[in-house]
Specification:
Order of helices and strands: HEEEEEEEEEHEEEEHHH
Shape: elongated
Radius of gyration: 28 Å
Helix content: 10-25%
Number of helices: 5
Number of strands: 13
Length: 246
């Protein structure tokens, strides 16, 4: 009786373990889906839920630069690239929530099949969609200027705002170029000499300059503002440089 009861318990335990294993295996298969090979300029659209991973293969020759564009449609995703030997290379994720573009790139060091993984962030939430394509494949940059161009590849187009970039070495501009558009409505591209309205961006530089003056002992952050701008009216309370810095 005891042996029979023990054998029955063992049988039930094995059965439970088998069921759990099947459930876990099913969850693993559900969470990570192999989506096949990506082709240049071939648009793919797919649905994905939080917690799911979609993996795409990308076959590249050595010393190539592959640039990917993904558009989120109601889901926040993280893009991760892997080398042919399965090692993680880089993560790509912009702070744009569940809508908008995500960009990724691969620089191939060897011939082989690389992986682009798309993971929907979070564990719960509604199903969303994304569209994905390889926007371009070109030789990997060798010169410094070409490397800058590939870094700014996401903004080198006529349908998004962008940036003017200058590389300064030994007090001289070594490289400058504009990427993207200064005005979308009038199709005005950004050039190296494009004028930007920096507005509040200037505040951090002003504060940094004041901190340099303080480190030289020329002023204190707790100085009354009227010590330096005596023509400023009195507002009944002491206003300091520290107040304005914050």
């Amino acid at each position: 009786m005891y042996s029979s009861h023990k054998a029955m318990r063992k049988s039930k335990l094995c059965c439970a373990v088998s069921i759990i294993s099947i459930v876990l295996l099913s969850s693993l298969v559900y969470a990570q889906t192999q989506k096949g090979e990506l082709k240049l300029n071939s648009d793919i659209e797919s649905s994905i839920r939080p917690g799911e991973k979609h993996r795409y293969q990308v076959k590249l020759k050595k010393n190539k630069f592959a640039f990917f564009k993904l558009y989120q449609k109601g889901v926040d995703v993280l893009l991760t690239t892997y080398s042919p030997n399965g090692e993680k290379v880089a993560d790509f994720d912009s702070p744009n929530g569940t809508q908008g573009a995500e960009f990724a790139s691969i620089v191939s060091e060897t011939d082989g099949t690389y992986i682009l993984e798309i993971r929907a962030l979070g564990n719960t939430g509604p199903q969303g969609k994304y569209s994905l394509k390889i926007a371009s494949i070109e030789p990997a940059a060798k010169t410094e200027s070409a490397k800058v161009d590939q870094i700014f590849k996401p903004w080198e187009n006529t349908d998004t705002p962008g940036a003017a970039v200058a590389v300064v070495k030994d007090g001289k501009i070594a490289y400058s170029k504009g990427y993207g558009m200064a005005n979308l409505e009038y199709d005005i591209p950004i050039k190296p000499n494009t004028v930007f309205h920096i507005a509040s961006v200037s505040k951090q530089f002003t504060t940094f300059s004041i901190l340099l003056l303080e480190s030289d002992g020329k002023l204190s952050l707790d100085d009354d503002l009227r010590k330096h701008i005596p023509e400023l009216p009195s507002f009944g309370k002491k206003i300091t440089l520290r107040h304005l810095a914050h």
